Amino acid sequence: MKTDDFFVTASWGLLELLADEMAAFGIEVTGRASAGLWVRTDMAGARGICLWSRLASRVTLHLHQAPADSADTVRRAARAIPWEAWLRPEMTFRVRFQGTHGDILSPRFGAQCVKDGLMERVRSQGGAEPVMTPDQPDLPIQARLRHGQLELGLDMAGASLHQRGYRSEAGEAPLRETLAAGLLYRAGWPEVAKAGGDLADSFCGSGTILVEAAMMATDTAPGLFRGFAFEGWPGAVTEGWPAQRAEADERRKQGLADSRSRFRGTDMDGRVVAAAWRNIERAGFSDRIHVEKCDVAEWRMPEKARTGLILTNPPYGNRLESRERAAELFRILGERLRSEAVGWRFGLLLSESELGHQLGLRSRRQYRFYNGSLETTLLLFDIRESEFRQPEQSLEELRTGIPEPAIHNEERAAMLANRLRKNRRHLRRRINQAPDESHCLYDADIPEYAVRITQTGKQLTVTEYAPPASVPEKAARQRLAEVLAVAPDVLGIDPGAVSYEYVRR
Ligand SMILES: C[S@@+](CC[C@H](N)C(=O)[O-])C[C@H]1O[C@@H](n2cnc3c(N)ncnc32)[C@H](O)[C@@H]1O
Predict the structure, then answer these.
(1) What is the pLDDT of residues 22-71, one digit of tens each?
(2) A GO CC term (predicted)?
(3) What is the mean pLDDT of the chain?
(4) Same domain flag for 149 and 186
(5) Ligand 1 pocket check: which of 169, 172, 178, 267 to mutate, most ligand atoms within 8 Å of Cβ?
(6) Would you state the pLDDT for residue 409?
(7) Which among 183, 268, 293 is the best mutation to test ligand 1's pocket, defined by most ligand atoms within 8 Å of the CB?
(8) Could you tell me which of 454, 435, 456 has the C-alpha nearest to residue 501?
């Protein structure tokens, strides 16, 4: 089977999960970039990513890569590509160009150069000229010019893969479907669903988390309700596609029969609940997802509910509500959870993780993501009495929210930096040999910093060990802030690629 290189993009914060997804599909990852993963697979594999990836935004078939520093080199590169293999005369195309270099001073001009080269090629082959269109082209061409390198490729999906086809109505600040799926993975929903657990979302908006969770629990392919650009391409691209779709239909049927999970969403806005209901119907889940209007202050667990996962993204504080109102909302939510949901797992996405202090719960793990351009944190909790805190305690006394990276004691921080450099020197060979494996670079080596630091690829995990009672909470927070400032800097890791967890020893 002929294989090709494809570039699979995903939003920031989802790449590690995307790599796991590719491994689960049995697809080889050949390289990593900040915006996505390079993979090598055949057409069936690439179609499978379009149909089954819950996290990917685009899958681009790689056609060309070479240096380019002028309009002429871009035109010649485009002229050398056998477009006739893809374009029938009646087909439309579009060029999406990113980047500038040399005399390509704007992406628009770059796109024009690619178009000129393509037209010259088609004419030289005696073919009829295809028409360029900005909307829903048959052949979406992707071009990128970065650091003098031109890449040309074909976008297999067309519309971004987060557009599943079921959410034609949204409330305010809806979650991107791919991010909702990433949150569900990080919160451990696949395991909860496998064990027959339930899912609840107490600020469900248009129902994105509920539908994505139901799709996972019922083995429904996220691309089952939409079309893809490649379906209209000629040649071997679609060979075997009907069977692939039929298999996805079959898996959904089986998944619907096997899944025992129930889904419940509530939101105070009746119009939003009605929109969620219609989205749920479009996704074919109206018999298992229940949504209703309910203010969180009135929120109760239904009597027959089993345990499972509550995953939600309330108003963010800086986006939908004033910060004070949001803090009050979190206090109410925390009170409801502590009285109604003992035994459940709980995941909360917010842009100001400090607001999580108001819940009166200790979070066990945190991850950072982008929701559009907004940086957000997913806080994960186990709702157990041992994790309860008094919400009225001062902020410093509550261990929720990652502190801002900061150096409070230069001398102490320098000790940590030196130790990290030394440990990394010792491990350098092992890291170079297996860059994608996890390597522990520090494990409470210095008594002042009771953390473990693990590097996996370009990702860093800081695991904080619960400090003994003799260490004041404020001092522990300051030391953690120092770890978060020093470790990414010394290890050359993007500070945004640091995740945090908290464990008791
Ligand atoms: C950020 S949106 C949730 C978006 C949702 N995840 C989606 O994808 O559409 C927050 C939701 O919280 C709801 N909300 C605000 N205050 C509430 C309250 N006191 N009780 C219940 N829902 C509330 C809003 O109506 C809004 O739909």
Answers:
(1) 999 999 999 998 889 999 999 999 999 999 999 999 999 999 999 998 99
(2) cytoplasm
(3) 90
(4) no
(5) 267
(6) 87
(7) 268
(8) 454
208 lines ligand 1 (CB under 6 A): yes
Same domain, 75 and 188: no
For residue 273 and ligand 1, the question of a CB distance below 6 A is answered with no
Measured CA to CA, the distance from residue 312 to residue 4 in angstroms comes to: 39
How many percent of the chain have pLDDT more than 90? 64
Q: How high is the pLDDT of residue 320?
A: 47
Same-domain check for residues 371 and 436: no
Please tell me the predicted confidence (pLDDT) of residue 316. Answer: 64
> What residue spans of 263-369 are helical by DSSP H?
270-282, 323-340
Pocket test for ligand 1, best of 172, 203, 204, 311 (most atoms within 8 A of CB): 203
Indicate whether 271 and 131 sit together in one domain: no
265 lines ligand 1 (CB under 6 A): no
Give me ligand 1 centre to Cα 267, in Å. 6
pLDDT grade, residue 340 (50/70/90)? very high
Same domain, 463 and 371: no
Please tell me which residue, 302 or 8, carries the higher pLDDT value.
8
- Tally of residues, the chain: 505
Distance CA 33, CA 39 (A): 11
CA 373-56-134 angle, to 5 degrees, is: 75
Tokens describing residue 385: 């009495």
With beta carbons less than 8 A apart as the criterion, state whether 336 and 289 touch: no
Question: In this structure, are 320 and 350 located in the same domain?
Answer: yes
Domain span at residue 420 reads 410-503
pLDDT at 396 over 50: no
8 CB within 6 A, ligand 1:
no
> What's the rounded Cα separation, in Å, for the pair 453 and 37?
24
